[in-house]
Amino acid sequence: MSVLRSIGALGLAGALGGLLAAALAVPVVSGGGLAAKNAVNTFVDLPPAPREEQLAQVTRLLDRNGRPFAQFYEANRTTVRLGSVAPVMRQAIVAIEDARFYEHGGLDVRGTLRALLTNTQAGGIRQGGSSLTQQLVKNILVESARTDAERDKARAPNLARKINELRLALALERKYRKDEILERYLNIAYFGAGAHGVQAAARRFFSTSAARLTLTQAATLAGAVRMPYSTDPSLGSAHRERLKGRRDLVLDRMAGLKLISQQEAAQAKSSPLGLRLRPEPGGCAQSEYPFYCLYVQQELLTNPVFGNTAAERRRRMAKGGMVIRTSLDPVAQRAAEQAIRRHVAPEDTEVAAEAMVEPGTGRIRAMAASKRFGRNPGDRKNGPRTTFNLPADVAHGGGQGFQAGSTFKVFTLATALQQGWRFGDGFQTPGALSPSQGYRNCDGRSVNDPGTRITNASGEGDGGPHSIETGTWKSVNIFYMMLERKVGLCNVVKTAKKLGVVRADGAPLREVPTFTLGINEMDPVTVAASFAAFAARGLYCRPLAIVEITGRDGRRTHVPPSCEQAIEQRVADAVNHVLTGVFDKGTMQGQSIGRPAAGKTGTNNGYTSAWFAGHTPDLAAAVSVGDIRGSYKFPLRGVQIGDRHYGAVQGASLPGPIWVESMRRALRRTEPRGFPKPDMSRFGGGHTPGLEQALADEERRDRRTHPFLRRHRRLFEWLMGQDEVISPRQGRTELTFDWPPRDRHRPATHTPPEVSPGRAPAPERPQAPERAQDPAPARPPARSQPARPQPARPQPAGRAQAPARPPARQPARPQPARQDGSAGRIQPRGSGEGSNRSQPSGRSRPDGQDGAHHPGRDRPGGNGGPPHAHRPG
Q1: 400, 513, 524, 801: which could form a disulfide with 435 (CB 3.0–4.6 Å)?
Q2: Which residues on adjacent β-strands are paired with residue 564?
Q3: What share of the chain is helix, strand, coil (3-state, %, to 5)?
Q4: Chain-centre distance of CA 162, in angstroms?
Q5: In this structure, are strands 323-326 and 350-357 parallel, antiparallel, or unpaired?
Q6: pLDDT digits (tens, 9 = 90+) for 598-647
Q7: What is the maximum span of the chain, computed from C-alpha positions, in angstroms?
Q8: Strands 59-62 and 620-627
Q9: What percent of the chain has pLDDT over 90?
Q10: What is the pTM of this model?
Q11: 3-class SS of residue 624
């Protein structure tokens, strides 16, 4: 149609519109109603075209290879250009909705006259005669409504709305060409079954695209627009019969307009609907990788990069239409999922979670958990599903996390090496330590805690010499408490913060003496990212899940890594050199992934949670295990996890094997690489007085032990009352028994309970005032003279180790010779093992009697217990 013809049609439509509107109003409006003259003016002086908001569309997530794995949307819609819609679909929708669409100027005079006669006979509005343009106006007003009142007004069945639609339709015809109006209509219309727009409808009804629709398919969709709810094919056979009737009506209409022949119409009507309903999952619960999907979704909602305000970010999320390429690696993701599934069942209340991060970029390669994502039947709290993003922090939908345990010792190690400590440097350690002096937080305030008594266990007896290597490999708590005091608590905290350490709940880090023992609750993503910095030679990169965003306009935005040099490269190399010994000389002895790796176990006091975090030059990962109901209330002792019974879960007994299995599979296509060698001119040449003799005495004692007793030493210790049989060679349980009979969550009789069942931890003890000036952080011992021992009676070399004295309330029995290969536990004075009476002032008591809020009871994870509580390892 020519431009002159279009203008003429618009002028005629405007003039007739006023007259017809007046006529339409006659049966309804009395003498005090609209006059014909005013009605004509109403349609000559037109308003601007209606405001059009961006239509809500589907946002799709792709893995690193470009494969979709999730989508979420407010409306299941994907907009397409008119050229991408099959011509037969265009013909079908025009034929049934507005056959004279290309002839009128926005007002279908014949349709309106027909409505006039109907309304006159009925005495009210019974038929609207709306043109396709008018229908588009109505949909625009509904989509653009920001309140329920605006939405109801756009749908109101009254004369005022019809007249307003007519005026806006005429204005719209002046703004757009006919094909542009048709394109907008096809993208905004609702077709039923949750499909908005012709592209989504083609996918939903027939598993095809709008460009590939056939005659029968196009007629089916065109018939659904007028009655999308009563013809929804997903609702049953009755709805499908109505849909078939509408399809046949469209085919007859197309034949009547000579768009198809009568023979084609008859042949199409004789065919079945041919539906191939395709599920269109929406939301992360229906994603293949739900925890990763949820992390991305929360990142879009919380990161200021994606909008200056929370409201702006929510609006952008609701409108969607984005294609987001993520850093998810399907190989690593499956590796993590399979490793967790082999050890922990979804039905277990104990949960395992793992995150994998790429060093040098911070890109998150995998996020997995033992539970499936979603709600449990009946909305039960405990079950195989969870709505929390277990590998992530609270900001990304996660829980409060679990105390990270001895994994935090790496930050003290890095701080010491940065200050000039060398390999071999160390000092004499006592058999017990109370942090009564020398600890100040970063505000300069003394945080000494003389009420806490830390004792060495696991074969270390009354103490002895340790270097930074042996203290790390054996995870000696007293050594690291003393090292933290020498290098300065605040300096250790600063190192941790530089390496991205933040609490899972977003609260400030607890800067207390046992910071180095991992008393802060963490999540696997954060811990994995901090260990990835060591693998990247000190380059810390913020965890990154989104790599590229393609907007609805087709423009691509690359999201680069956000990295900074947190510690010196040579310091990171030295840390890696020490941590590699954990696998062949320490707590993970015998567990290998077949390539160079570094890592650290973490087992908390009372076995409230267990960790392993480690890395290779190509990938870092962290695994956490704890009870989702609350780690202090339900410690990991005497529990059945998966198909195995555990006397106690330690860093090397469950998180360690999960880490080893997942990393081995995740890296199977990656060429092995080693870590850069440390600078021995800077870090070599250290000395610990008495260490060589102590190690020689230990080796001599081992040689004197009968091979059978050496091999089965842990078995005999277990039979004498120890927790679990851990092989010093393999770092894993060699043998467990089902006696006493398995009882989930009740400590076995051979395991000394750390807190009596049903008994709340002891109330906090007021902190004693400082009596002495805290000394300044000490430098490493000079090479020319031995380091001065700490005030404690040293254990004479070669003397047999006496078993640690058990708590007074327990019958005397030997303590474990090795638990996760570590060498220390916290034991408050005058209390049983595992309780802690010396919380910092102002902290909530774990028994909840102080009336304070306890996040650990509201979210999974969270120890909900004393901030100093920690188990070695």
Answers
A1: 513
A2: 540
A3: 40, 10, 50
A4: 49
A5: unpaired
A6: 999 998 888 999 999 999 999 999 999 999 999 899 999 999 999 999 99
A7: 117
A8: unpaired
A9: 59
A10: 0.76
A11: strand
